[in-house]
## 1
Amino acid sequence: MDMGVVRTAIFVKEVVHVQITPTYSGCPAMDVIGDDIKMALKNAGYHSKIELILAPAWTTDWITPKGRKALENYGIAAPLNAEADKDVLLNGKRLVTCTNCKSQNTRLVSQFGSTACKAQFQCDDCQEPFDYFKCLK
Amino acid sequence: MKNKNLYNYILGIADNSLILGQRLGELTGHGPSLETDIACTNISLDLFGQVRSYYQYAAKIAGDDRTEDDIAMLRKEREYFNVLLVEQPNTNFAYTIVRQFLFDVYHYLFLTELQKSHDVTLVAIAKKSIKEVSYHKRFSTDWLKRLGDGTTESKQKTQQAVNDLWTYTEELFYTTQADNAMISEGIAVDVTKFKANYYQNVNAVLTEATLDIPESKFFQKGGKQGIHTEHLGYLLSDLQYMQRTYPNMEW
């Protein structure tokens, strides 16, 4: 819910219909997310049906403040606004806050990171390498 | 099949992404640097994701028991409709980047237009994909400039790649019978309409990269009708090996 991946959840004749949407088309986590939702609902005593939808296309704007906090706690810097995002990914600006020491003395290591949704950064103060969640509008 | 033209049209779009994705995937663990290796395979993953959406839709249109996997894995060489450009090998990093750049510029313009289609599923896939493709285009454009305007060696290799791959660009704007049928129904993109725009974009970046724009007017085509270069067969044997050896295997 906090990542904006779950779009709707409604009851139709005793069955929970849940619609989920991928962050990126090739996101390999979608099957796991779908299975986890199904399992959680089953444990709570509900039958469910999971549907993958593509429209409207997912955007980082749908990540809630709680979701952003959870990302930061995990060590992934949450997306900046579109303009700042462009500045850090293309123009070498130092605006991303290090998830370890909170310094903004961070630099882009790679435009592409460990998954499609992230870029790789490093902090020049504490030297910690970390992921940055790219802004997607 | 009732909607044969739509089915073939979708395969034409999807096969480009499948074959290019497979080519980029070959670089897993073999990229020139860790960052470019990850970038190429990330782009590959985006393309495969898009391919799944297209093939799932095509399977639904086929209306029989075929699945997205059957469409991806179990066709013969002549039943793939990708353009020749995307099947060209990773001769060296310059070829990988130039191939990517020449396709990305096309792909971006194509998806921009596909968003105006009368087919809601294709519109949804286009809207999703274009966000990813704009990032691919940035990557290949940046690298083309770095390589072209780089060292004497990188410039020479990149110019060679541009000269060699240029012959496959015209085919991007060739329309098949299925394409034309779908254009008249307002579903397909009339690619001929953005051809001038394409070459304008490409030439501007080549100029900025201090590379020469090829003057050759000799162009190859055939992929969109299933007639491929010698490279596709080898690529498919790699792609299809597991599924042919262990039919119906799953991860």
## 2
Amino acid sequence: MRSALTALWGIIWKDLLLEVRSKELVLPLLVFVLALVVLFSFAFEARPALVPLVAPGVLWSALTFLGTLGFVRLFSLEREQGGLEGLLTCPVPRSLIYAGKLLAGVLFLVGVEVVLLPIFSALFNLPFLLPRLWLATFLATLGFCAVGVVFSAMAVHTRAREVLLPVLFFPVALPAIIAGLATTSAILKNEPETAGRWLSLTLAFDILYLVVGGALFDYILGE
Amino acid sequence: MPSAYDATPSGAVPIWERLLLGATGSTLLASLALIFLWVPTDVNLGVVQRVFYFHVPLAWTAFLAFGIVFVASIAYLWKGSERWDSLAYASAEIGVVLGALMLATGSIWARPVWGVWWTWSPRLTTSLILWLIYLGYLLLRAYAPKGPQGARFGAVLGIIGFLDVPIVYLSVQWWRDLHPGQVIGPQAEPGALEGPMVVTLLVSLLAFTLLFASLLAFRYRLRRLEDGLERMRYARA
């Protein structure tokens, strides 16, 4: 158990260290997602009266694109210097590699979201501290990361991966995105009961995606 | 894995496939005769209602095809035999074609009945998403490496994609509950079918199921031949 945790931490640490040294993921993703929010607020005509209707769509379209770009990078890190072979030769179960890459991905995206959410709140004149909004965002991020990592590992071996990844990812991750969207929408419309229901649904989707993703990840990595 | 070196099938069309093709052709002709000559025109909806006898069987065979991809994908990951992968691939390809026809005939049917070409009801949305997932499956197979790796990728998507269907359905349904006012949709289904209509529908269902079986048998055999060719090329190189 202890050695498993050490191995898990090792995989996460490796990705974090790479990111700290190269700064190729979190910072550019943050700028990208801010640009998206600005673009979408024009596309969806975010007048003050429309904010509760428009803001969730702006946030979740931006987060979906953010995730896609993150997943494209997450495994191409491993490809460039033959890191994947190194990971595969590690004497750890494959499920740990899944968990490690998943948590690293979640940390990167949550890192972006922690900065994004206050800015988003300011841009749309929302209260800064909406704990439920933060919770909803993180939970839904975990859910779509659980599938995203699987497709990320797949896309690294395919041609046209930048296009193929969203094509595979969007339809499959739709329930997690809908759940995040619906929670956000219920929170902004001040319907705590509906928000609570969607929050538990998000959690249920997370568990389902984690189980299926974890079970199938093994087959992606191969022998 | 010795199963990866299954004997390549010969190019000859086996006798049972010829029989299946004959049965498909005659049943299809019979169902066309029933649809266009025999069954009475619907009193309320008029001639356009006849597209229903295509739409329902197309939807059934498309979902059957995706179900087969799911089962064959599980079997492939479990047993590792290339045959299962060929079956999954063949079924996905046919399913995407049937699904496209299902969506098109559905739109033709929706326009006069509901007054719109499309509505984002759970059933329609789920069908569209399912179709998109298997379109993605074909893209993945085209862009992934050939051989067992691509087959494994396909199997994983075939399984995740099908498991996703009920979740998509539920989430869309609950999402729609948040937005009342969208009452048009399959909930407003017309009343019970009359006798001749039921007969026509059943014959049409049988005909399309046979058509699907024939296409699947042909595509499966072709896929096995393609794989065999690939192996020979690989062995010579």
## 3
Amino acid sequence: MNDAFLISPESEHRGAGCPNVNDLTEEQIRAELDLILDRRNADTRLSTMGAGSDDLDAGRRYLANTVLGGWHVPTWPREHGGQDASVNQNSLIGRVLREFVVPDLYPFAIGLGMVGPALLEHGTNAQQTDWLKPIASGESIWCQMFSEPEAGSDLANVALSALQDGDEWILGGQKTWTSRAVWAQWAICLARTDAAQPKHKGLTMFAIPMSLAGVEVRPLMQMNRDAHFSEVFVDGARLSDQWRIGEVGEGWRVAMTVLAHERAGGGSRGGGDGNARGLKLPSWIADLQVLVGEQTGDWRNKVAALYARDAASRWTAQRASDEARSTGSPGPAGSGAKLRTVNSYKGRSYLANSTSGARGMLEDSHGYIETLTAPSMSIRGGTDEIQRNILGERVLGLPGEPRLDRDVPWNESRRGLI
Amino acid sequence: MTEDSLVDPLVTETAHRLFSEICDHESIQAAEARGQAPEIWNAFAETGFPWISIDEGAGGSGGSLLDALEVLRLVGYHAAPIPAAETGILGGWLLASSGQELPDGITTVVPNGGENATGSISGEEVLISGRALRVPWARIAERIVIPLAIEDQTVIASVDSAQCDIEPMTNMAGEPRDTVNFRNVRVPLALATPDVDLEAFRFRGALSRAALMAGAIEKMSQLTVSYTNDRVQFGRPVAKFQAVQQHLVWGAQDAALARMVAETAAREATRGAAQFEIAAAKLVANQAAARATKACHQAHGAMGMTQEYPLHHLSRRLWSWRKEYGGDAEWSKWLGQVAVSRGADQLYPLITGGSAALN
């Protein structure tokens, strides 16, 4: 699969004088992509969300190729690695891209899908200039230092502190479940700058170079033997005020932008096993057909139900993502999309595993890594329960959970005490 | 209830204490890395636990099948990385039933469905060849037992593992499920008693897994209740949230269900015919395992996905055991065929009477 991404740097790309991307037809987009990418075929197999893979090179090569024409993040400004595409044109490009081999961009997804859009909304010009292009080109990997041992689902309860010292900040505390920290050059970090404010206030967002003195990453081994998430210990790390994202005390608002983009799946384009256009069957069904002995009615029923669910979840995710791009701020539809996408992934994994019969217990069986990864999908990026809560409160208008700590100064709240 | 339909409380107490002392998170992790846990096995074997239910005259430890299954339940509960079922109620049982010597060490058995190991009778010997798949702990076993149907007879071949070529393979739980190649190994011909055949072995395998699974689901449920009571988010233990309580209820229900069916099957098996109860127990345990692992993982959040927290010792074992000695489809089909072949009028008597109604 690696050769697919070896494209010479001299290959055609969208330089000055090319027609505006918003004027391109579907055929023209396809023709341009044909110059830099390989078509996807029935044999294309890609990992999803990095499960079982530590490959950074495939994604780097793909992004290095596509950034020349701004193809991966078309809506971003041209100077930052995009091509100022309209929302509709972006959707069209996304659809055409599905016909090509786009590797699993899991290592790059925080930068591409979450930090990038948040910087476009909340970052200074200098920050955008410094950080966006390297994200789009795959040069820099970002991670998200949000969760802490006592602040998981209750994200606003973060305790990692940032204290101002002249035009610097001194950071101390611990993060956990920091996906991609082992690979990252940069982190977006939610810190408490004023402990006397209620928990959602008094938070500020920073960008941290992972090489900064006082930042230590300790990978955690997962059940599926990946070590993709880590604990991050921060002890007296000194940070320039230029690396603050958004205003002091506005960290929660920035975090919400980041998370809404995560749910909307902004960065998830690429990888996985969707149904590429023009293929008779998605490769997951082709694989199941090889594994299954007898195609019983029950088995076909399960495959068909999954296929339908998969298609629905893909279009829902696409709609949420388009909506996010057109309004600039993703709404609760992203929560629905995440629930469906996760459900689909789990369904495919479990069906592959059960289709393998007794063989499916062995570590070299098809669907093995997916089965061990599946439970994490409804936990990472906001649990199913958190997503349903968002839908309940913001879509259905149900009464909110009682919040005992709403107006209580954070340092007087009952965090972790009962 | 008669005396022999009760578990000896001393068995429960002793086995539970033994595993509590020697089988902790670190030792299970270490066993996974090494592919064996000699300290746990030796302590376990020293008590004679592996050979419960096999007559003392045949080299066993005596005691009832019910007691043996209770030990297996505790093996599952503690996620003990040892070939307890293989050495005892499966391999040991096959050896004893064919009048063969029980080894002092570990016995394993080529599982039902471990295709392609074949045997042919040649005078007073059996010639074994072929390749057996998913053989539990073969790499550390002293004897590898293969039940074979040859010319209307059930032959129990007991092969010295040193005469086999063993390729290591691992299941989801990190336990050995090796590939064993037999290259025309000769062993003395030994026939099983008439009540022991491949079908009986298949059911006994399922019974062993149902007992292990009942224990593992119970422990998983307990871990989850305890973790969610400790874990505070939004100013209260997460166990106070209804959405989390729903997961806890699934875990607890499935633990109760799996234990109930395993115990019913064990009791009936101790009395005699128990095909219906065993088939139902394995199917119910399989389904309970699928639901309970989902619920318990979800309630644990990210913590449950780490190697550092013990939940995965249980969930990965459950996913593996679920596939051994009959997956959901196999037992659903068996039960469905039995019910259908007897007709609608006999359905209720079958449900209430169980295996006794089959004869």
## 4
Amino acid sequence: MSQVTSAPASAAPAPPTAESLATVVTTPTVRRVVRRSLYWGVAVAGLLGFGVLMVVLNGSGRELARWGADEAAPVGSRAVLEVLRAEGIDVTAVGTLADARRALAGDDPATLAVGDPRLLLDAERWGELDGLAEHLVLLEPPLYGLDALGLDAVPLREFDLRVDVDCTLPLAQRAGTIDATGVGYASDSGSVCFTEGTGGPESDESESENQGSAGSALVSYELDGESTVSVLGAGGAVQNDQITQAGNAALALGLLGEHPRLVWYLPTPADLTSPSLDELTPGWVNPVAWLLLATGLAAAVWRGRRLGPVVVEQLPVTVKTTETMEGRARLYARDGARLRALDALRVGTLRRLADGLALGRASGVDDIVNAVAAITGRSTDALRTLLVDREPDTDRELVALSDRLLELEREVLRRVALDDTADTADAAGAPAPSDPPRPQPPTGRMDP
Amino acid sequence: MAVTGWFVLLVALGVVPVVLLVDTPLGAVGAVALWLLVCVLLAALDLALAASPRAVRLERDTPGSVRLTESARATLLVTNPGRRTLRGIIRDAWEPSAGASPRRQRLHVPPRERRAVVTTLTPWRRGERRAAIATIRALGPMRLAGRQASIRVPGAITVLPEFASRKHLPSRLAKLRELDGRTAVMVRGQGTEFDSLREYVRGDDVRSIDWRATARRSGGPGRSGGPAQTLMVRTWRPERDRHVVVIVDSGRTSAARIADETRIDTAFESTLLLSALADRAGDRVDVAVFDRRVRGRVQGARGAELLTRLVETMAPIDPELLETDWSAVPSLVRSMTSQRALVVLATPLESPGATRSLLAMLPQLTAKHLVVVASVTDPALLEAAADRSDRASVYRAAAAERALLDAERVGAAVRRLGGDVVAAAPLDLPPALADRYLAYKAAGRL
């Protein structure tokens, strides 16, 4: 009677013949799942691939590295380094001080160019640069770096202007006029070049009096004869976008191409001297964290896989019987229909009193009031006020009246139950017993 | 496909090799990747070695019906036709209200063998409860991963009405027997028949002494004579072969739930008790469930068959959210009986507005039949009417009093139209209706 559909082909779109007697495997086979989700899988993969391609092509999402050796963007320095390479200079781009040392090892005279736009090097590291190479070119160095190197150059402020050569340095002379963008420096002991204002009318002002100006674009120091330090304030001169302007190219090639080797050192976070989190933690922490992540994923798969689908069932509606009553109560309360509410309570009380006194349904208010007065000894007028006439003005009054109604009911019931005296007999006997409260069949008293 | 907790544990255990391997040339990434690869390969191997849950043959063995609140054992026979041992978990999923337990069970079926998976059903709702699906997760020998398939195996069990009021049946039957053989003339009316003669015992009504029979008996042969006379009395029994017609309202108002029971369930309980009693009393019982059409009808059944057919008819019926078409009821009753009958209408009497069509139809029935309306009252109304603790509850009490008054007025209207009303709380209605029937029986009003 049970037929098994194991082959995926025969299990294909199983029509809902569940009502038939055959058993049907409802879980799709792996092949069917793959086939069904192929479109979306391909679509999502295609979109992802496209996105990655766009990122790669546009290079967006990557921070532009100023003076980057391989950076083709305007702020990079790939152009000048390529030209230097073409000129036969051995250009090495490094990211850490240790690499720089390694690259500088050797006998050939070398140039070390250091630019730290992200200010990653601390003073100590700056100091270590001293004497590493025959020519040290500092691109817009910070004050503490200069102090660490024992140089008296001081960065003044940013400038962006065209300056003429105003010193006798051969490489500066070759450059002539440069478009200087960067920071101007002032120095007493070093020889300064391209001081602001030399291109203008006040060209013959001395640099020492120029403290109010933006300073010079190039400061160079000759240290003990064989080692040179150049502070290039016009860092823009070696950027791709400005290298071709004015004499920038001549200046850059002159500075950097002096020696057969050039080490282009841009500090990276690896240079940070304070120990990083990586160095402080044992080597196994990261892989264990990945493993825990994988464990969490596996646990999610484990717990997330349901043992079959959720079973749904059509349940009948649930109708509350008291909804009408609650709604009516809220209407009474909202409109403050005190008299109407009290009348409903009074009718209920009168009905129960009539039942308790065996007066019958047809008895009027007067009959009930008289009977109650007879059994309780209260005055007829007071009872009438309570049961009919009194109109409540406040909710407090309504609650009080309702309590008194209940109290009256209890008293009457107690009296009826306690003293089965002539009073009750009279009261019950006075009106014709039309109907007992719950109409008993005539022979009810025959039952045991 | 599914993985188990063991697989998760295996992945987590990778901490040991990863810590050991992290300083080797493999490096951190390599160690983690290697371990994950090992885990995935093991899981894949396990998966490949697992038995196919799709190939399993399933058969059901379900009892046809179960009474509400009782339990039944639903058996699912699992045959493993393959050559690998099927081990894992099985879930025999039923509709939630079938109350299936346990939800999931271990499964171990050796190759080419069959095992029974027993699920205990304790339904909490009347009607037909269906089996939805059976899901098998077959694990591999290492229990790391498993293959899973859901298989629809049709099956159903009919949940019959509880008939909780059957506990009232013995006492009512005892009352019925008391009616039998009763001598008092008070009982004798147009509805009683002469039953038999028997000897007088103390307590018998002297008016029921049959003097002629006494004379015949004492004057007969074989008597030694003497002063001791044997008095004979006549006994009577209630008339038999009357007709009871029950119309259960399955319309909108019967959907209301009172004290955890819908009104229609209470009506069914009352019907069952009344039918059982009337059938024992020798009367014919016909039942119809009606809203705008006849939802169920039991006619001409007697004895045990009557109750069986009644519960089977009632089992799948849920109230419809329709206004009951009372104008069609007289013709329905006419189609069920041609003679005078006790017609019981099981429907709530709530407000004058909702019962207008019932009241309009009633004279047609009362002209020929004895009509009783069995109405469920809400104990919550009485509670609300008695609670006067604060302002809000006083207003609620007023509204409850108002609702009670409405019901009272409808009941009075029914009585005025010649019908009778039995109104009681859900648990009290079935015995109340049975008592009313016995009272009619005793009075010979049927």
